[in-house]
Amino acid sequence: MTARPKPSPLFLGIDTGGTYTDAVLWSEAGGPSGKVLAKAKALTTRHDLAVGISGAVDAVLQKAGTDPTAIKLVSMSTTLATNALVEGQGGRVALVMIGFAEGDLARDGLKAALGTDPVVFCPGGHDVHGNAAKLDLSGLEAALPEWEKSVSGFAVCAYFATRNPAHELSARNLIRDVTGLPVTASHELSAKLGGPRRALTTLLNARLISMIDRLVAATEGFLAARNIAAPLMVVRGDGALVSAAFARQRPIETILSGPAASLVGARHMTGLDDAVVSDIGGTTTDVAVLDKGRPRLDPEGATVGGFRTMVDAVAMRTFGLGGDSEVALEDGVLNPKILLGPRRLVPLALAGMIHGEAVASELERQLRAPNPGRMDGRLAVRTGVPERLAAGLTGAEAKLYELIGAVPQALDRLLTSNAQNATLNRLVSRGLVHVAGFTPSDAAHVLGRQANWDAAAARLGAELCVRRRDGRGQFIAASPEAISERVLTALTRLSAEVILETAFAEDGLDGAATVAHALVQRAVDAHPGIARLSVALDRPVIGLGASAPLHYAGLAELVGNRCVVPEDTDVANALGAVVGQVRVSAEARVSQPKEGLFRVASGESVRDFNDEAAAIAAAEKDVRAIAAGRAKDAGTDSAEIEIASEFRVSTVEGQRMFIEAHVVAIASGRPRIAV
Asked: What crossing angle do the helices spanning 455-466 and 357-368 adopt, rounded to 10°?
């Protein structure tokens, strides 16, 4: 009797974006690139992420007619962390600086990132060789009882903790014993020098923990309810996969997760080895470069929301430009331009679909007014996050938050002063409130190029827009259709600008944004001027995102090369999430505090040796073991480990003098799947 062939395992990819949650069911069978069996979308529900996840996954399972138990691996990418940093959102955390001075807050954007969150400075830290100063945590201990009630987590950074993490470990243990809240220590995230930037990275990680934890918990709960007993993986910012438990502890590493997954998906779908990949979503446009089939990585660490972190990630430039970008008019000019972003608004069409008459009635009321108001077409609504995340509000913030409910309210009725507008913006930054308004998504609905939400609400928003006047007192557009065309044209033009800006920056050119703007402006201007300028990319653009076919239709002539929009572009992130590999690393440093003494700092241990070769051998053994352990924690049982060593030496009177060695182990392999 001939044995029946074993069915190919099925893989479920999920991408939780700012507006939509995507799902794709993929099989390795069906050709060299496998086969997409089904794909689906559902609105991301920030108040309860499980709702959006279940909507997308249930739809994809129904389309494929698949038994959920046949799924052997679930992998997820997300733009939640990226969007949170771009929009300035996240939990309130306390920063613990050990061995630093208050003046260090002014470096690397740390003070701006900290905002109004609390900070304490404690004596201690180490020198470059790991020798300790005296540690005093009394200031931290005194502050903990009060902070325990007002923060969601802690970030701890000690001077030269990458050479000796002992003082970070002491502070971490104290905080956990007293408060039980999540603590991120800087040495857990990066082995690079640069204390303030490492503190910044640690602060942002602590701020994101509750958000990513909610996402993972929602996904795990959904999978359990559907009897999907498969490992859950998450895409990191460098495109690698890690287990959900790994991502929960290091959520900062998921910044640029969605865009990184999109690069993997773009390469998989098009087969292009060299391309510029532009992924347009609801909140952001993410642009990166593929070289020889691999994404370029940023050697300095990922930059998101204006903050340069120490997170290894694709060399991705993220712009606050998307289908849900805020539409505004240039101030103080006779002929104002359309401005887009960087803030995301809830499109009026989406708000109208969710809340119905509550949105339409307010917009119609504003249209009946004899004169336009500066807050026309804007409404506020609570996001529905748990009440504990509203801890630490000021009196003014708490008062306004109480007035805002689950039904959208027009800002012209809600706000009575400019000060309240600033207060509202702070609530938005905390992720507690959404503001709805006119966006490119609404413009697409007005023109009939998008039809998944409430087109009537979108049109009301456009009608309010055209009541605005320019510097000469003329209406800014003749009709809702005219203003909508201007908005979509502006989005395509700005998309070309950010793509060219990325290309110029990758080439090391200064003033990339200014040059890109000038070139695109000349390309679309009917009278380009005396100087004839043109530009062309050396590689095609891969356009990703559900709205890419719409917004990138006229892109090729602006960038001087073709634009490829793959068939499954709308789920590129979700597809990229299931075709990637686990990849983790471990690092060790070998220094020479004094002649003949070699100090190995690896993981959380510091050891001394009297022989250079013995120290290097110990460092290599350590990083191999640490990388193997991390690979297992990250979700693979079949990791291959490569070790590379870099030496810094000098020659004095013909004699080799050892200064330092950097030893790195990289472990990679396919994720484990359910049996």
From this structure: 20
88, two tokens: 């300035």
Helices (H), 453-605: 455-466, 480-506, 512-524, 548-551, 556-559, 572-578
Neighbouring CB atoms inside 10 A of 51's CB total 16
Residues near 51 by beta carbon (within 8 Å), at least 6 away in sequence:
45
What is the arrangement of strands in the sheet containing 119-122, beginning at the earlier edge strand? 119-122, 93-98, 153-158, 183-185
Determine the longest span between alpha carbons in the chain, in angstroms: 88
d(CA 90, CA 392): 13
Query: Above 50 in pLDDT, residue 105?
Result: yes
Residue 516: band (very low, low, confident or very high) from pLDDT cuts 50, 70, 90: low
Nearest to 598 by CA among 587, 586, 611, 582: 611
**Nearest one of 577, 567, 569 to 11, comparing CA atoms:** 577
- Count of CB atoms within 10 A of residue 33's CB? 14
Query: What's the rounded Cα separation, in Å, for the pair 404 and 424?
Result: 10
| Structure tokens, 503 | 């290309």
Q: Both tokens of residue 157? A: 């950074």
Q: How far apart are CA 648 and CA 658, in angstroms?
A: 7
Dump the DSSP string for 527-596: S--SS------SS-EEEESTTHHHHTTT-HHHHTS-EE--TTGGGHHHHHHHS--EEEEEEEEEEEEETT
- Contacts of residue 412, Cβ cutoff 8 Å, sequence gap at least 6: 366, 373, 375, 376, 378
The residue among 197, 171, 189 whose CA lies nearest residue 98 is 171
**Radius of gyration of the chain measured on its C-alpha atoms:** 26
- What pLDDT is attached to residue 507? 81
Tell whether the torsion through CA atoms of 33, 34, 40 and 41 is positive or negative.
Answer: negative
Q: Helix axis angle, 49-64 relative to 195-225, nearest 10°?
A: 50
Strand 655-669 relative to strand 71-78, pairing: unpaired
- Joined tokens for residue 657: 């003098």
**What pLDDT digit, counting tens, does each position of 17-34 carry?**
777 888 999 987 766 567
Residue given tokens 């870099």 in the structure block: 646
Q: Which amino acid is at 282?
A: G
Cis peptide before 196 (omega within 30 of 0): no
Q: Which helix (H) or strand (E) holds 170?
A: helix 166-179
Residue type at 557 in one-letter notation: E
Structure tokens belonging to residue 440:
């490119």
Instruction: Report phi then psi at 154, rounded to 5.
Output: -130, 150
Question: Considering only CA atoms, which of 3, 16, 115 is closest in space to residue 574?
Answer: 16
Average pLDDT, the chain: 87
Model-level pTM? 0.70
Q: What is the mean pLDDT of residues 104-111?
A: 87
45 alpha-carbon distance from chain centroid = 17
pLDDT at 526: 53
At 54-93, the pLDDT tens digits run: 899 999 999 988 888 889 999 988 877 766 676 666 778 8
pLDDT in tens, 503-512: 888 887 766 5
CB 303 within 8 A of CB 280: no
Phi, psi of 290 (to 5 degrees): -95, 130
Q: Give the rounded percent of residues in the chain with a pLDDT score beyond 70.
A: 93
Nearest of 629, 631, 609 to residue 601 by alpha carbon: 609
- What pLDDT was estimated at residue 1? 45
Whole-angstrom distance, CA of residue 480 vs CA of residue 673: 52
| Structure confidence at residue 367 (pLDDT) | 94
The residues, any chain, with a CB within 8 Å of residue 232's CB and separated by 6 or more, are 74, 75, 76, 216, 219, 220, 223, 243, 244
